[in-house]
């Protein structure tokens, strides 16, 4: 058995975590085992499932400049104590140049993985950009969820090399096939029967642009009082978004579900998927929404690589909330749900083939330093 160390930051239900867990559920555990290094002990949505699948979870200190020596020691000590790891797959890019360098010193094959197209703004973004620049030269393999995310982190020249690989954010497509009975049951449970339901799945943080999302929904509701908004997720900005909803007098029109494990069923209950992100790599939730047959109204800032069906409608963030609302209501008048299974599989986003490729990659003699 080959043990692969996944460095992920947290085990909350986010996009990169969902991508790794989809892989983990579908690989042959008699041949490959994933173990995880995280630095947020209170974000453990997937912890019990990981343990049930045979995985281990290690807690590391959260990096900051002041604790750099402690951080370096943690990694050196880890590899001294755990020579069983042959591959490290790093999804935390800001400190990847540190932990991948140490892993290489102990003969471990190193994989970097890009899941985004921005470090955000402000001083912390500058520091992250400086720290992550050497990754393109350090990692044995450069993985990414999309070409746009790869070029952003590694540069265009690195993406032309043989060690560059797009690993698609694949899903178990069968779980998302449109089912009218599931839709009706979930809408009954949520008490949204007969409503026009706009939905969003995502962490409450700056990139997801919830402030503007609420403005868009307010514009929709002003034109269609039968509309409701379904927000799935949690995060550090949730409280401020709740306040905005209350200030607008929309608290009885917006349902905040928190983190959920029934995402496929929740997608069935929606009518339009709204995703006005400021930046993204390639969101797995948009693949899931398309698999569920949902028309998606998304930001033009998201790479066109996400357009794996005809369901995606891209709108500039420079357009007003009212403009976005008109686009949503236009879709409402003309669309009926359909089965998109074949489209998702043909585009290469079904987890069966992706897991098979990953397994073959890990077992390739050229991959392992043996």
Briefly say what this structure is.
This protein is α/β, with parallel strands linked by helices and 370 residues long.
Notes on the structure:
- The protein has 370 residues and is of the alpha/beta class.
- The protein has helices at 15-26, 47-52, 68-81, 96-105, 123-132, 135-138, 147-154, 180-190, 210-223, 238-247, 263-269, 284-291, 321-334, 341-346, 351-363, and strands at 2-9, 32-38, 57-59, 85-90, 109-114, 141-144, 164-166, 196-201, 227-232, 254-258, 272-275, 296-299, 312-315.
- It has a 7-stranded parallel beta sheet with strand order 3-2-1-4-5-6-7, with helices on both faces.
Q: Mean pLDDT score, rounded? A: 94
Number of E-type strands: 13
- What's the oligomerization state? single chain
Beta-strand level of the residues, as a percent range?
A: 15-25%
Q: How far is the first residue's CA from the last residue's CA?
A: 14 Å
Strand order of the largest sheet: 3-2-1-4-5-6-7
Number of helical segments with 4 or more residues = 15
Largest sheet: 7 strands, parallel
Which spans of ≥5 residues are poorly predicted at pLDDT below 50?
none
**Which structural category do the helix and sheet elements fall into?**
alpha/beta
Instruction: Sum up the overall morphology in one term.
Output: globular
The rounded Rg comes to 21 Å
What order do the SSEs take from the amino end to the carboxyl end, as H and E?
Answer: EHEHEHEHEHHEHEHEHEHEHEHEEHHH
- Percentage of residues assigned to helices: 25-40%
């Amino acid at each position: 058995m080959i043990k692969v160390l996944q460095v992920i930051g947290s085990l909350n239900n986010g996009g990169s975590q969902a991508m790794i867990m989809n892989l983990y559920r579908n690989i042959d555990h008699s041949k490959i085992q994933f173990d995880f290094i995280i630095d947020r002990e209170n974000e453990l949505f997937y912890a019990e499932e990981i343990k049930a699948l045979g995985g281990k979870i290690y807690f590391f200190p959260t990096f900051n400049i002041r604790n750099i020596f402690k951080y370096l020691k943690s990694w050196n000590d880890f590899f001294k104590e755990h020579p069983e790891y042959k591959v490290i797959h790093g999804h935390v890019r800001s400190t990847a140049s540190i932990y991948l360098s140490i892993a290489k010193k102990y003969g471990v094959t190193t994989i970097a993985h890009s899941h985004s197209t921005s470090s955000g703004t402000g001083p912390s973004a500058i520091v992250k950009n400086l720290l992550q620049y050497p990754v393109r030269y350090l990692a044995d393999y450069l993985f990414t969820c999309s070409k746009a995310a790869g070029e952003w982190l590694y540069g265009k020249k690195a993406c032309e090399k043989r060690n560059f690989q797009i690993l698609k954010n694949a899903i178990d497509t069968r779980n998302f096939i449109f089912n009218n009975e599931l839709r009706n049951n979930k809408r009954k449970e949520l008490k949204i029967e007969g409503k026009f339901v706009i939905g969003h799945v995502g962490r409450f943080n700056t990139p997801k642009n919830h402030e503007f999302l609420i403005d868009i929904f307010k514009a929709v509701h002003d034109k269609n009082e039968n509309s409701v908004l379904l927000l799935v997720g949690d995060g550090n900005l949730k409280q401020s978004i709740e306040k905005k909803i209350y200030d607008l007098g929309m608290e009885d029109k917006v349902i905040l579900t928190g983190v959920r494990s029934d995402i496929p069923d929740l997608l069935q209950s929606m009518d339009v998927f709204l995703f006005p992100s400021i930046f993204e790599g390639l969101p797995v939730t948009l693949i899931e929404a398309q698999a569920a047959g949902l028309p998606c109204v998304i930001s033009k800032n998201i790479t066109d690589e996400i357009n794996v069906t005809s369901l995606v409608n891209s709108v500039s963030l420079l357009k007003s909330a009212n403009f976005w609302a008109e686009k949503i209501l236009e879709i409402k008048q003309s669309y009926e749900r359909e089965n998109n299974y074949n489209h998702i599989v043909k585009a290469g986003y079904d987890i069966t083939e992706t897991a098979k490729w990953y397994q073959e990659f890990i077992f390739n003699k050229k991959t392992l330093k043996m």
